[in-house]
């Protein structure tokens, strides 16, 4: 029976069911019998050598030049194998004849390259593990051509070429680092030190002396030898930092025409991003480019996932996808990790896959946001190779991930058993007790929108990637020349997997494969960049480099899936930085382009794009400082810190000179700071407090500059917050300062006596008596999270020049008592009845509106918002849709989190004193996959973490596996006997736009995906591009997130441009010019030289100042008692703006009105019957 007939039978039976994209072919069909068999022994086993199961690689290339791609496997304890493609999915094992077996070598990574420039593909193999040194010298198989039977013959010439390195090589990558036209090589070196703990903090070795230091070898062509010889230039190139290297990718990261190197390092050692200095040296800039990376970093890949012309970076780790594996593998949270990171200068790393979204360039550098949780690819268990290609030819690059491990030495129950039994149990017994991790590869279909945030859909079963295995290296290539990418996997202790891609027969999508022929010293054109311009004006970009994923070599062609489109043109940037532009590119076939047969021009510099915003230097030399209080020592199961919420910024006029000044809040041990504007538009730091301002024990949150006593100057209110002390500590008393000739004197008699850990303070004359009243947001009850805190309504009782505020909760709205964990509030007239209402947002709360009934406030029901319980942080208002009422933008947690919630689901929390020890215990939950792959509600943290909160957890669940099978409800029923517990939930995480219908009801719509990448704090609404539509600028992050999930840090500031249909389009950083990368909190507008400037306050970081380049504006001075304005574009179309004393998280902006030059009229309404009109 022929192979063709066998395959037809398989396809026929397959077609009876739902058709799947890939079909796994049997050994009997392909004749591929490779099995990377690892045989453990007493001297070679996982307990003594943790890299025993790191596996081998795959190379797909045409070794004999017959037009069919062949397959090469590296073996560890077994010989390498070469299978020649005979067509019709039949392969011949020619390993012994070809001479590539490399017996007695532990072969790992494989590169295929024409190293001696003779037109034939050679094979370079990285070797490791074995002793003595001679058994791990790298192998270079020079292709001597085919024998009479068409079999390529190889001979090892590594020593002759200077490539027989013996430094425990794991992989390598060939590239032209010095732009001299030939290919140099980077060696990825990973030596496991037998008696050292690889995760133990110690001083980094950054002087090149480590046995785990990678190497760079320069290609020096030797005329006498007639071939290249490689010279070690590691030290002179500056490659001096150690690492347990597992993954390597080469790319022009910063688009300067010189190749850079990204290395993913295992264990504690940080990843390395070697940026090419263009002078033969490199500088590691990983800590500058990435806010965090994976921890146990494995394979990586660099590719443009969203077709915007900028490459993303994906690297893999070990975060499991299901609850049971999470609970039996993950370690307990330990804040000492952060302390030691700082002490030993390690970067932030987390146990999960990371996907670095390229958000565009600023000052010549790419700006990244890590979005793996948002994109749905953060957890794929013990993962090795990220293989990226357009597998369904729909025009977007998809992702397949190999994974699995024969001996799970990270299993917490095994670790406990090993710790207890090491001295007593035989090694054989210990080895037999280690569980295995046999898993399916993961397949993810790219479902991103063009130029947008990247999203994937798990299509593992749908695409037919279904057989569990211990998979390591993998490669793709078009093995049957039908226009789609087939997939080959190197498995440990199992047969290699060969998957036939059936896209060409199942889908009617166009495609093109492009093969390049380069110049003499780089005949394969490695390092070229191809960009196809498509018929719908979109683009696709690919860097021509086959060394990708993990230990493997892809087919060296550029594959572009086109969906239903055609190619308008093709741009090729060759390795020498010349460009060829080609039109009339045929599709649905392989196309070959030769460097020597195409016209070329020298690549010029790209024009710098114009941005909406630009940085501005105001002479503000300020850096916020925050004492690192460890909230988790008090309540171990918090989602985030409660002591790291500042700083707030308030804008006012300290000295009555009509220039904007600002106050930025301090923190525990650090006082707040006054910045006063000078006549030249710069700011000077001033000490305007009297000697009785405080003891620097307060954690300052919100502040407000306002004329409390109607004497014509701005007084100052400062909210005390945080979580550093017990709730009865006097540091939680708010403070009020009277402005006395530009100095601020603390008044002890103005405020009522109350202690509260608050957030914001907001002012408005809610009772229309001519003075400003206050609302103080109660953020948390210290050490008793998440019990609801009381917020305070303070009525201004100014009489005969005597200022006094009184708490009027019980009189006007008892619901303010124990209201919730309030983050922000806004005084606003929701229903245009000329009475100012109050909108309140917070954690575990719906967006809550209290309507002003003149003599009392009552919560408004039936708003359409009651069912949206979120981690709401911030709110800002404006008439976004031009219908005469105020709409709102509300900041939330976002979706780049492990707490993702599907529609109709909610995560629950419970709290109480579960162990009767007088302290508050907090139990959170989250949705994870159960054994069937369905999402179920489980405890969020591990058994070790929960037992820190309630020791009974340890007694009730003696094994981690028992806890791993326990749902959240089962945990609650088992541990909590009392009915007097506090319960709450969250069911919505998106930052959103609230459309006000004007009748007390709202339509809530999530903002675009770009707004959901991190927690949102600062919000600013205005028309940034002078098109008369409201745009949105948001900033955020939260660097106090719990240790396992880590810092919320993906936001760099986001600009959303509004349109006439109520939609929003995100601007990348190159378009917006906004870059606020830190733990951003407050965002205020301040006026300098009659121009609106934005100041962003960042926790433990500097203030960022930017200005909008829209010059088509004019300003209108707003008086203290002005409440709102109607701005007319013509006689019938107008929008409304309110003038706030505090607007968005911990922020108080200048109240002046800025309008576009095409405005016809502005009507301004003040308190009482006050009104004025300005006509243009």
From TrEMBL:
Name under which the protein is recorded: ASPIC/UnbV domain-containing protein
Pfam annotation, one family: FG-GAP_3
Natural source organism: marine metagenome
Keywords: Signal
Domain ASPIC/UnbV, chain residue ranges per copy: 525-589
């Amino acid at each position: 029976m022929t192979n063709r007939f066998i395959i037809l039978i398989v396809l026929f039976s397959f077609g009876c069911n739902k058709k799947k994209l890939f079909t796994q072919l049997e050994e009997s069909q392909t004749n591929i019998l490779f099995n990377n068999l690892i045989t453990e022994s007493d001297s070679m086993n996982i307990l003594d050598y943790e890299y025993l199961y790191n596996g081998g690689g795959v190379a797909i290339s045409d070794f004999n030049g017959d037009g069919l791609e062949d397959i090469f496997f590296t073996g560890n304890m077994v010989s390498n194998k070469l299978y020649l493609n005979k067509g019709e999915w039949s392969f011949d094992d020619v390993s012994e004849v070809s001479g590539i077996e490399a017996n007695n070598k532990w072969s790992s990574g494989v590169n295929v390259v024409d190293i001696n420039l003779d037109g034939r593909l050679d094979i370079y193999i990285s070797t490791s593990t074995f002793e003595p040194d001679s058994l791990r010298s790298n192998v270079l198989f020079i292709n001597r051509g085919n024998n009479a039977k068409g079999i390529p013959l190889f001979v090892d010439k590594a020593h002759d070429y200077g490539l027989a390195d013996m430094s425990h090589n794991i992989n390598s990558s060939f590239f032209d680092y010095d732009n001299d036209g030939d290919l140099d090589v980077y060696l990825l070196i990973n030596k496991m030190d037998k008696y050292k703990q690889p995760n133990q903090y110690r001083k980094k070795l950054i002087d090149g002396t480590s046995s785990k230091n990678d190497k760079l070898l320069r290609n020096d062509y030797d005329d006498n030898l007639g071939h290249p010889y490689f010279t070690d230039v590691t030290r002179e190139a500056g490659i001096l930092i150690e690492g347990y290297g597992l993954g390597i990718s080469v790319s022009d990261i910063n688009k300067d025409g010189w190749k850079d190197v990204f290395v993913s390092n295992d264990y504690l050692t940080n990843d390395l991003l070697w940026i090419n200095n263009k002078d033969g040296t490199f500088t590691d800039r990983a800590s500058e480019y990435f806010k965090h990376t994976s921890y146990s970093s494995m394979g990586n890949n660099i590719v443009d996932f969203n077709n915007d012309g900028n490459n993303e970076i994906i690297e893999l780790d070990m975060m499991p996808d299901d609850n049971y594996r999470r609970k039996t593998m993950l370690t307990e949270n330990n804040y000492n990790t952060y302390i030691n990171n700082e002490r030993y200068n390690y970067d932030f790393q987390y146990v999960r896959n990371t996907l670095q979204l390229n958000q565009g360039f600023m000052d010549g550098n790419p700006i990244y946001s890590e979005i793996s949780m948002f994109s749905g690819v953060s957890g794929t268990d013990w993962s090795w190779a990220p293989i990226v290609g357009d597998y369904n030819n729909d025009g977007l690059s998809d992702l397949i991930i190999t994974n699995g491990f024969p001996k799970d030495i990270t299993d917490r129950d095994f670790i406990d058993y090993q710790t207890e039994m090491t001295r007593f149990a035989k090694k054989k017994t210990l080895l037999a007790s280690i569980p295995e991790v046999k898993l399916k590869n993961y397949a993810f279909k790219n479902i991103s929108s063009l130029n947008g945030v990247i999203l994937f859909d798990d299509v593992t079963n749908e695409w037919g990637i279904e057989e569990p295995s211990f998979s390591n290296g993998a490669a793709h290539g078009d093995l049957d020349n039908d226009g789609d990418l087939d997939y080959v996997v190197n498995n440990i202790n199992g047969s290699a997997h060969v998957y036939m891609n059936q896209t060409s027969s199942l889908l009617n999508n166009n495609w093109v494969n492009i093969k390049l022929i380069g110049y003499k010293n780089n005949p394969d054109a490695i390092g070229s960049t191809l960009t196809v311009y498509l018929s719908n004006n979109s683009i696709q970009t690919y860097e021509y480099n086959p060394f990708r994923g993990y230990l493997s070599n892809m087919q060296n062609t550029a594959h572009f899936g086109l969906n239903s489109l055609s190619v308008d043109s093709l741009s090729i940037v060759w390795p020498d930085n010349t460009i060829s532009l080609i039109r009339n590119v045929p599709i649905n076939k392989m196309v070959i382009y030769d460097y020597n047969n195409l016209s070329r021009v020298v690549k010029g510099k790209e024009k710098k794009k114009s941005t909406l915003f630009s940085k501005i230097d105001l002479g503000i030399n300020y850096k916020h400082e925050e004492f690192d209080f460890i909230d988790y020592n008090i309540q171990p199961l918090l989602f985030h810190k409660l002591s790291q919420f500042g700083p707030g910024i308030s804008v006012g006029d300290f000295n009555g000179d009509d220039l904007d000044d600002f106050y930025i809040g301090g923190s525990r041990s650090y006082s707040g700071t006054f910045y006063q504007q000078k006549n030249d538009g710069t700011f000077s730091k001033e000490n305007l407090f009297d000697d009785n301002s405080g003891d620097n024990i307060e954690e300052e949150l919100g502040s407000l500059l306002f004329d409390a006593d109607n004497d014509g100057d701005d007084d100052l209110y400062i909210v005390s917050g945080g979580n550093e002390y017990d709730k009865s500590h006097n540091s939680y008393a708010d403070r009020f300062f009277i402005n006395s000739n530009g100095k601020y004197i603390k008044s002890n008699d103005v405020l009522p006596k109350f202690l509260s850990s608050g957030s914001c303070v907001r002012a408005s004359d809610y009772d229309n008596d001519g003075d400003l009243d206050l609302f103080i947001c109660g953020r948390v009850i210290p050490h008793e999270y998440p019990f609801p805190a009381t917020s305070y309504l303070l009525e201004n009782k100014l009489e005969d020049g005597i200022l006094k505020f009184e708490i009027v909760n019980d009189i006007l709205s008892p619901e303010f008592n124990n209201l919730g964990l309030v983050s922000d509030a806004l005084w606003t007239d929701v229903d245009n009845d000329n009475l100012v209402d109050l909108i309140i947002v917070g954690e575990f709360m719906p967006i809550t509106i209290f309507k002003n009934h003149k003599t009392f406030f009552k919560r408004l029901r039936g708003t359409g918002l009651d069912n949206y319980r979120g981690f709401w942080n911030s709110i800002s208002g404006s008439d976004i849709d031009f219908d005469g009422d105020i709409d709102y933008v509300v900041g939330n947690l976002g979706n780049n989190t492990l707490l993702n919630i599907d529609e109709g689901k909610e995560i629950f929390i419970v709290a109480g004193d579960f162990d009767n020890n007088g302290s508050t215990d907090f139990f959170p939950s989250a949705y994870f996959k159960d054994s069937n792959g369905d999402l179920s509600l489980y405890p969020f943290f591990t058994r070790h973490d929960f037992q820190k909160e309630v020791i009974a957890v340890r007694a009730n669940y003696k094994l981690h596996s028992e806890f791993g099978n326990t749902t959240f409800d089962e945990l609650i029923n088992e541990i909590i006997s009392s009915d007097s517990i506090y319960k709450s939930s969250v069911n919505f995480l998106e930052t959103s736009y609230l459309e006000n219908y004007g009748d007390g009801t709202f339509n809530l719509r999530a903002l675009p995906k770009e707004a959901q990448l991190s927690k949102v704090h600062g919000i600013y609404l205005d028309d940034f591009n002078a098109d008369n539509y409201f745009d949105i600028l948001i900033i955020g992050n939260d660097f106090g997130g719990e240790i396992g999930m880590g810092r919320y840090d993906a936001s760099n500031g986001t600009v959303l441009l509004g349109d006439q249909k109520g939609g929003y389009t995100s601007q990348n950083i190159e378009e917006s010019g906004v870059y606020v990368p830190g733990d951003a909190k407050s965002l205020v507008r301040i006026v300098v030289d009659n121009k609106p400037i934005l100041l962003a306050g960042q926790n433990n970081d500097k203030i960022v100042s930017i200005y909008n380049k829209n010059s088509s504006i004019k300003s209108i001075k707003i008086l203290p008692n002005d409440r709102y304005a109607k701005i007319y574009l013509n006689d019938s179309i107008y929008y409304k703006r309110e003038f706030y004393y505090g607007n968005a998280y911990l922020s108080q902006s200048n109240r002046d009105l800025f309008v576009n030059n095409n405005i016809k009229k502005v009507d301004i309404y003040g308190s009482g019957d006050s009104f004025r009109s300005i006509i243009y």
